[in-house]
């Protein structure tokens, strides 16, 4: 455990005081278990390379937390710090004994507005019925519970972890033994979402597939650092990469059903991928030319062979202007190859497909323009 009572009955946090002071009280049998009031002693410390904590002499506590691992102890400290940093106005307590439900929460958060949250850090296996009991007891006591799992269970398929995902739609794993602690967020996605992800580009963090018990859902695991994750008031875990991906997906859905090309949507979709400068210098001039005359290339290409099309002098002049513009772009680093890549980043959905083809034709024209020049 990380909290004991000192000589005056005051709560003492393992890392809150000098180790020498704790050892002195420990030797004089002045530290007590907050639960059974039995004597506890200080354990661990820098020279033992383990987390400082308190332990009963022979596991004689009815609340027994004695089988606690260093991982579990360390996780509680890491998570309490993570929560206090996010909610400076809230009171964050370690190993809080709650009258209702009658158990000790690993970490307890009392927000300024009176809402309460218990955080359970689970490193050991847990029976699914036991999880349901504890979860229901928290709900009954009007305490929101958040379950965070030790990364030692990351590869295990366990019913209680599936139950957490089913109840809150996601679960986080952390490895508190590393600094800074890495974190993994796992959540269920549908087959349809998985298909959409294949279309979205520009998202690099690793996303490992994982198939749960349910056949209609797939699991996605995002890996990052705990310090980049935040816990929202409603209990949702927020990671910037996932937020960006979700924003891309919702844009993609809008774009799929759009009647016309929307400049703002295209800007929002492509900016994280190609950057703002390239959009202003390359993409938007192309888009404006396209919207004025989407069929220029079709007329030009087919007009040279098929009788149904006709190339006017004006078309020929516009193509000439386009070549000059493309040459200048190539000198600025936006080569034919670059344009080809850009065309591939434009999603092939709704009215955007035709524009992607248009950019591809410009890339082709750019190759010709720069070849003639070189
Ligand atoms: Zn005890």
- Provide mean pLDDT, rounded: 88
Helix content: 40-55%
What's the count of strands? 14
Ligand inventory reads: zinc ion
Task: Let me know the largest β-sheet.
Answer: 8 strands, mixed
* Beta-strand percentage range: 15-25%
Number of helices: 12
Please state the overall shape, judged from the principal axes of the Cα atoms.
Answer: elongated
SS-based structural class? alpha+beta
Fill in the keyword field for this structure:
44% helix, two-stranded antiparallel ribbon, 374 residues, binds zinc ion, alpha+beta, 8-stranded mixed sheet, single chain, 12 helices, 21% strand
Explain this structure to me?
44% of the residues lie in helices and 21% in strands. The protein has helices spanning 19-27, 70-86, 128-140, 159-168, 191-199, 240-257, 263-274, 276-292, 296-303, 313-331, 336-345, 352-373, and strands spanning 3-5, 11-13, 40-45, 50-56, 91-98, 103-110, 116-122, 144-150, 170-174, 182-190, 207-210, 217-225, 230-231, 237-238. An 8-stranded mixed sheet has the order 5-6-7-8-9-10-12-11, with helices on both faces. Strands 1-2 form a two-stranded antiparallel ribbon. Strand 8 (144-150), helix 4 and strand 9 form a beta-alpha-beta unit. The longest helix has 22 residues, at 352-373. The N and C termini lie far apart (74 Å). The protein binds zinc ion. Residues 33, 35-36, 38, 56, 61, 63 line the site of zinc ion (ZN).
Secondary-structure map:
Blueprint (H helix, E strand, L loop, with lengths): L2 E3 L5 E3 L5 H9 L12 E6 L4 E7 L13 H17 L4 E8 L4 E8 L5 E7 L5 H13 L3 E7 L8 H10 L1 E5 L7 E9 H9 L7 E4 L6 E9 L4 E2 L5 E2 L1 H18 L5 H12 L1 H17 L3 H8 L9 H19 L4 H10 L6 H22 L1
Helix pairs in contact: 3-4, 6-7, 7-8, 10-12, 11-12
The site of zinc ion has 7 residues, from loops.
